[in-house]
């Protein structure tokens, strides 16, 4: 019995990992190209820092790039490390998994007879990305970003944009001092260095992805799904159950619509929408990747904010359609 359970968990782990790896590779390749071709600092700082226009610009970038929740993290991290305004990078990070063309096409293919879902999913995903980005913008970089990312970002901030302590320059009691000399500008012009940096990033992100897939696989094969779907027609409980299922099952956003199609008739419309907008942003598989962008407190905040917003979107949908 235990051996069968382990074999099942191993099969689920392989499916999750093999499904996510191509998109992680796409994200790392895009991040490497961004690092090589875009001069860090001045160019990316020209992106809007406006609380609304910034996330909208990032969301538009997410629409143009085929990056799901595994591929958008390395791209967003590179944008932040190179000096991009926080709202633009956050708009891309949270909107790309729902707004990219592959996800939109798969949603249309899975639900051609439910036109409301074809506009409700991208609209709700965009609204969630905008609200979370606005809330994060109210905080200082050092309060939400991972320490390593803050130090990388500090190299590309203009003088006077923050204190030396915030830049972690190592002059005022920084716990992790950084050398005073700036990296050579030739670094961005060398394919060799860019590729080596990308390979290092791939190894780190892949190790986190493996951990997330392992946790998701164990929970998938341990938690019974019957009790989640048993409350499928309860207006609020159905939403909470499908939100939990989205986090645990950790399926890629490019194919989650086909999974949702299997139980769409058993749950409320709001629960279906909550499943399709929360899973691409927050799941067990992607939490480890978020650790390269956010500090722990910010990850908790992002998880709670996305959960509350998905619940509200689901409740509003049920109010209108039931």
UniProtKB/TrEMBL annotation:
<feature type="transmembrane region" description="Helical">
    <location>
        <begin position="202"/>
        <end position="221"/>
    </location>
</feature>
<dbReference type="Pfam" id="PF03773">
    <property type="entry name" value="ArsP_1"/>
</dbReference>
<comment type="similarity">
    <text>Belongs to the UPF0718 family.</text>
</comment>
<keyword id="KW-0812">Transmembrane</keyword>
<feature type="transmembrane region" description="Helical">
    <location>
        <begin position="116"/>
        <end position="136"/>
    </location>
</feature>
<protein>
    <submittedName>
        <fullName>Possible permease</fullName>
    </submittedName>
</protein>
<feature type="transmembrane region" description="Helical">
    <location>
        <begin position="227"/>
        <end position="251"/>
    </location>
</feature>
<dbReference type="InterPro" id="IPR052923">
    <property type="entry name" value="UPF0718"/>
</dbReference>
<feature type="transmembrane region" description="Helical">
    <location>
        <begin position="12"/>
        <end position="31"/>
    </location>
</feature>
<feature type="transmembrane region" description="Helical">
    <location>
        <begin position="288"/>
        <end position="313"/>
    </location>
</feature>
<feature type="transmembrane region" description="Helical">
    <location>
        <begin position="258"/>
        <end position="282"/>
    </location>
</feature>
<keyword id="KW-0472">Membrane</keyword>
<dbReference type="InterPro" id="IPR005524">
    <property type="entry name" value="DUF318"/>
</dbReference>
<feature type="transmembrane region" description="Helical">
    <location>
        <begin position="89"/>
        <end position="110"/>
    </location>
</feature>
<keyword id="KW-1003">Cell membrane</keyword>
<keyword id="KW-1133">Transmembrane helix</keyword>
<dbReference type="GO" id="GO:0005886">
    <property type="term" value="C:plasma membrane"/>
</dbReference>
